[in-house]
From TrEMBL:
Coiled coil: none annotated. Residues 1-172 form the PRELI/MSF1 domain. Signal peptide: none annotated. Pfam families: PRELI. This is PRELI/MSF1 domain-containing protein. One of its GO terms (cellular component) is mitochondrial intermembrane space. InterPro entries: PRELI/MSF1_dom, Slowmo/Ups. PROSITE patterns: PRELI_MSF1. It comes from Eschrichtius robustus (California gray whale).
Length: 172
C-alpha cells in the first residue's frame, strides 16, 4: 500500500473554485477522462449537495503494466461521490476505481476549503491510497501509480484554473 498526499492553494474564492471543480470534465489538460455520467444528485435537509457520478477513463496503460496485470483493457471506470456544503464552505470528493479491482485499488479524497487567512483563496488537500494486490512488482506499480496521480493532480489544478479563466472571459 502506498499513500500519496498533496496540498494546493488556488488564488480564487471557494465559491469560484467549487463551481469550476463541479465542471472539471471534460478539459484539455486531462483528455483521459472520456465520459462523466451523473447517477444521482440530491440536496439534503442541511442544504448540502450530494452527487454520485461515474467517470469513464482511457488511460492507455504502458505495455509493461498491461503485461503485469495480464490485461489489454485500458478503459476504466471510477465511482465518485461528492458533498458540497455551501454553508460550511467545504466540498469533499471521494473516488475509487471499480475496474481492475482484483489487482489495483485507488481511493482518493479531495477536500476544498477557504484559506484560513485569506478568503480570496481556496485550499485543496488531496490524498490517495494505492493498493496493488497479488502481483509481482506490486511496490513498483504502486510507485508508478503514485507518480501518475501526482502528475494528474497538477493537470487537475490547471484544469480548474482554465475553467475559471474561460468562465471569466465568457462573462466579459
Amino acid at each position: 500500500m502506498r499513500v500519496w498526499s498533496s496540498e494546493h492553494v488556488f488564488g480564487h474564492p471557494w465559491d469560484t473554485v467549487i463551481k469550476a471543480a463541479m465542471r472539471k470534465y471534460p478539459n484539455p489538460m486531462n483528455p483521459s477522462v472520456v465520459g462523466v455520467d451523473v447517477l444521482e444528485r440530491s440536496v439534503d435537509s442541511r442544504g448540502r449537495l450530494h452527487s454520485h457520478r461515474l467517470l469513464s477513463t482511457e488511460w492507455g496503460l504502458p505495455g509493461l503494466v498491461r503485461a503485469i496485470l495480464g490485461t489489454s483493457r485500458t478503459l476504466t471506470y471510477i465511482r465518485e461521490h461528492s458533498i458540497v456544503d455551501p454553508v460550511g464552505k467545504k466540498m469533499e470528493l471521494c473516488s475509487t476505481n471499480i475496474t481492475l479491482t482484483n489487482w489495483v485499488s485507488v481511493s482518493e479524497r479531495l477536500v476544498y476549503t477557504p484559506h484560513p487567512e485569506d478568503p480570496g483563496r481556496t485550499v485543496l488537500t488531496q490524498e490517495a491510497v494505492i493498493t496493488v494486490k497479488g502481483i509481482s512488482l506490486g511496490s513498483y506499480l504502486e510507485s508508478l501509480m503514485a507518480n501518475t496521480i501526482s502528475s494528474n493532480a497538477k493537470k487537475g489544478w490547471a484544469a480548474i484554473e482554465w475553467i475559471i479563466e474561460n468562465a471569466e472571459r465568457a462573462l466579459s
